[in-house]
Amino acid sequence: MKSKYIMISLFVVFLLFNPSSCSKSIVKNLPRFNGDLPFTLETGYIGMGKEDAMQVFYYFVESERNPSEDPLFLYFAGGPGASGLYPFLYQNGPLKFNFESSKRHNITLELNMYSWSKVANVIFVDLPVGVGFSYAKTWEASRSSDSLLAVQGYEFIRKWLAENPKFASNPLYISGISYMGIIVPNVALEIYKGKNFYCNERGNQPQLNIKGYLIINPLSDKFSDFNSRFEFAHRLALISDDIYESTKASCDDNYVYNVPANSLCAANLKRVDECIKRIKFGYVLEPVCNVTDMVPTCKDYTDTFIQTWVNYKDVQKALNVREGTIEKWEFANTTIAYDLKKNDTVAYSYDVWSTIPTHEQLLTRNCQALIMCADHDMVFPYLGTEKWIKSLNLPVERSWEPWFVRRQVAGYETTYARRGASIKFATVKGAGHALALYKPEEALTLMDRWLTSHAYLSSSS
Fold it and tell me: pLDDT for 243-265, tens place per residue?
């Protein structure tokens, strides 16, 4: 406990010598939610970059259990380009839309009983700038890339903790979903190495109490993860044995960047595409629908609720958004969102091809990782993740085994470990890409079990 107060004091000293570039406020209630919020929600901006030209918006939810001791998660939404408000309201945040009673212009909010804030403090951040309510004051500040976003994530959490020193000694975990599999490990590595601002490993203060990272359905390698869709489609009987064998024989294990001259491979891939083009990649069990299918089971339709709700003026006022900084809030900045083979844009460069080398480096730093994958996600199938983890040639601490929720099999997990570092790979049975949306209890249980399983390492390191 003594060390905790020493660290907090050092952060206070650090803050005194760094002029505040943050504005924050506590949100007591939100339109379309009945009554005061029964949890602590803080929103605000962190100024970053040269002359604070980047103004980064965030949503911070205190743990509902023990905020002074519980872990602190910095959570990145996917894309890149998705707002942190999306997971806040659809996945692992404290609120959610009532899909059954809500209509497009009559939306109601309710509590999410499986919010990660039940056991942890969580910061949902709008990064890079140009996403959600974050904005840039200059053209230069509006530009980003995979590699820059890792540095920006590090700068954000450093400055946020300087503004919130009472959380300085809480165990810190970097987390995110989907494309953030390219970003999250590199943010964690930036913190471990202490680049650009101070060297954490040499003991310079203030230190960040980094313990590890958590990623959900991650993109980790821009070849193998897309390439794994073919094998996944066969395992789920979306393509036949003869199509599978013929394509495999003709494409030389390359189903993404096939050689144009290989006409047989191209013909086979066309057959594959014909079989899967009417399948929802985000959740293969979900029916194909669109926003005109106004039913609670259509995700394309219910995803419109957030766009409507957050653009109400009273909502933005309640969230303490700076008036006039954003013309219209968008769920995602589609100009920078990544897709297969997409080239760099004016505003964003996709300059990190693979984070497998990053994971290897993190394994040398007493780092704990949880990688959870939905077993019905074809955006980035669990097969690709499992393949690159095995390529690390780590010793298996606990072999493939089921894990349970309410005495039912909720998925399967394997734990790899080496010299104090570990990677837990876990599948979630019956879930899709937005994992916590489809299996909220399972996602919370898995995360909490993982934290508990290595708590002794965190307390002793």
Answer: 999 999 999 999 998 878 899 99
Catalytic residue among 234, 359, 433, 454: 433
Could you say which of 83, 102, 144, 178 is catalytic? 178
Are 23 and 43 in contact by the 8 Å Cβ rule? The answer is: no
DSSP letters spanning 151-198:
HHHHHHHHHHHHH-GGGTTS-EEEEEEGGGGTTHHHHHHHHHHT-SS-
Give the sign of the dihedral formed by CA 178, CA 180, CA 182, CA 185.
negative
- Could you tell me the CA-to-CA distances from 22 to 54, 160, 201 in Å, in that order? 11, 8, 27
Contact in structure between 388 and 221 (CB atoms under 8 Å): yes
The pLDDT tens digits for 135-167 are 999 999 999 999 999 999 999 999 999 999 999
Q: What is the pTM assigned to this prediction?
A: 0.92
Model pLDDT for residues 70-122, shown as the tens digit of each residue:
999 999 999 999 999 999 999 999 999 998 887 777 899 999 999 999 999 99
Annotated catalytic, 273? no
Question: CA 446, CA 427: separation in Å to the nearest integer?
Answer: 10
Does residue 433 carry a catalytic annotation?
yes
Q: Which one of the listed residues 142, 377, 454, 458 is annotated catalytic?
A: 377
Who contacts 396 (Cβ-Cβ below 8 Å, separation ≥6)?
414, 415, 416
Active-site residue 178, yes or no? yes
Return the DSSP state at 332.
Answer: B
